[in-house]
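User: I'm putting together notes for a lab meeting next week and I want to include a structural view of one of the chains we've been expressing. I don't have a solved structure, so I'd like a prediction I can at least talk through. The sequence is below, exactly as it appears in our construct file.
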Amino acid sequence: MKDAGVVLLTDDGSPVGNPRVLRRAMEYARGFDLPFASHAETMELSGNGAMNEGRISYKLGIPGIPPESEEICIDRDIRIARLAGARLHIQHVTTYRGLLIIKRAKEDGCAVTCEVSPHHLIFNEEDITGYDANYKMNPPLRTKADNEGLLQALIDGDFDIIATDHAPHSELEKANDFASAPFGITGLETALPSLYHHFIKPGVFGWDLVVRRYCVEPRKIIGVPPAEIKAGARANFILFDPARQTTFDREFTKSKSTNTPFFNRSLDGMVARVVLDDETLLAR
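Assistant: Thanks for the context. Below is the predicted structure for the 284-residue chain, given as structure tokens.
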């Protein structure tokens, strides 16, 4: 798999319940110098939950997923990675207490990195008011206090990367009732405009943080050489226009899926051009 170009192994979508199996997977990953990315979830605690467990889930009558489901698995996977001598990456952290577990492990010298997604910084359980399945994701939207804690952790450098957690689904699937609709939202097209609109333009943090956490550090984790901007190099870049505005409607989006809380909403800023290996993939 590594010879074929694989740069990372992951259990995302189906977390490994058996610690012994996970240990063996991490040991194999270590042997090939591949990081292992973990979807931290204790399925026995999550059960048939569909959103964060708490006051809002009780009010809406929707089965909940307690934050402990994520936090217990974060702690378990870190301990197993330390035992296996593996490099571990914790995906889409949603609770501040979970982030603190990772932070302590880093301070203890464990080779662990972690990520946060834009939607877990911007939205929380209070946004799920109309049973809109476009707010259903796994891990789920947590609390406003978690939003604030994760945002400060990103600013402080506790998060290594920003990840889109892109998970497209059809409109028909997401039209089901909240409890039975699939988890996940699209995140690729909305990532930069949402970060600009909610954080960069208001001065919460700058473009330097986004470049470092959304571009530079992810490449380091998976061993991909940095993108260079210099004469003679292949062109790999994104042009972002802060003077324009993006409305995520069916006409605008290039994705086949529209399962996003930003659908039919407008955000300041627009990705105006995407160039990969000298080829223009998008121009607006």
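A couple of points you could mention at the meeting. Residues 67-84 form the longest helix (18 residues). The beta strands are 9-10, 36-38, 51-52, 64-65, 88-90, 112-116, 161-162, 237-247, 266-276, 279-283.

User: Perfect, that's what I needed.
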